[in-house]
Write a structure and sequence with these properties.
transit peptide; MCP_dom_sf
Length: about 325
């Protein structure tokens, strides 16, 4: 099957999905840098601010616009690379797994297919994200300026911790991002399908592209709320781990994670959830909107609400 000049599930199609992911993730994460910065600081020091408005006001008055967008460069670069892998590999693995399972099995078990494809995609996407995430957290949570430039920050991590410093948070990052992405894609696809089937009660193709994008935005926000809740404990651990500096007293990363969990307790592990729900809900809605708008612009169909088997595509 083709869509305009692009054949669905062709190498060009996957490349375009990756480009859509760059546009969706890099721009939206950068725009939410002030909220993300406050969330990270609250996770490291729960008494830093009384809430979002208080935090934005204090940082803005003390550090200005530059302070509000502290960590913006690694955020933009890291999540652009992650978005490329997340969306491009998701479409690729969805195609590969559906073809391996066969049309009938893939059609009957769409949700496991979404979960497997998104988990596989995020595994590789996080390898691209992790170094930038480490730098971003250090910049945002250090009590003194971590570095005067982006390259200076990278150099400082390498000098003090070696290459391992860029990837010491990879396991908790996987624990945060893989469940997040599984929920993000599987819930989105199912919510879109449910809206067309039960709320609108008409096939997707009977609606205009702007109307389909409206469904995309609604489904994206609902999926984002679920994503934030599922992935928040691991997000807190990532922030604390990257803020810790060198591994203390010869402790391994797993021992550090266990210590962080013990120190925080059940309540502490959920610190910063409210701003993160606001951030992730808005972020996920915007990402799906940008991604699907890009697909529509290039002549591709919007995501969800249709069969996902390789043979039918």
């Amino acid at each position: 099957m083709t869509s305009g000049a692009i054949e669905i599930n062709s190498p060009k199609y996957f490349v375009y999905c990756g480009i859509g992911g760059i546009l969706a993730c890099g721009t939206t994460h950068f725009s939410m840098t002030p909220i993300d910065m406050l969330k990270c600081r609250l996770q490291v020091n729960s008494k830093a601010y009384s809430g979002i408005i208080d935090g934005l006001g204090k940082v803005g008055r003390k550090e200005g616009i530059r302070g509000l967008f502290l960590g913006g460069t690694p955020t933009f670069l890291g999540y652009s690379m992650q978005g490329m892998g997340k969306y491009g590999f998701y479409e690729y693995f969805k195609f590969i797994y559906s073809r391996a399972a066969g049309q009938q099995v893939a059609q009957r078990h769409k949700t496991p297919l979404y979960l497997a494809a998104s988990a596989s995609a995020e595994f590789f996407a996080d390898l691209m994200l992790c170094p930038m995430e480490a730098l971003k957290v250090k910049q945002q949570t250090s009590t003194t300026r971590f570095a005067t430039s982006f390259t200076g920050g990278l150099s400082r991590i390498y000098r003090s911790e070696g290459l391992g410093g860029f990837y010491k948070g990879i396991v908790p990052l996987w624990l945060r991002q893989i469940p997040y992405t599984m929920v993000k894609f599987a819930s989105f696809e199912n919510i879109v399908e449910a809206i067309y089937k039960h709320a609108l009660k008409r096939p997707k193709d009977s609606f205009s592209k702007p109307q389909q994008l409206g469904v995309t935005f609604v489904s994206g926000y609902l999926a984002g709320i679920l994503c934030a809740i599922v992935s928040h404990p691991a997000d807190t651990i990532v922030s604390k781990l990257n803020n810790a500096g060198k591994t203390e007293q010869g402790m391994s990363n797993s021992q550090m994670v266990a210590k962080i969990v013990r120190d925080l307790g059940f309540r502490g592990i959920w610190t910063g959830l409210v701003p993160r729900i606001f951030m992730i809900g808005t972020l996920t809605m915007a990402q799906w909107g940008i991604y699907d708008a890009f697909k529509v612009k290039t002549g591709l169909p919007t995501t969800g609400g249709e069969s996902t088997t390789a043979e039918e595509k």
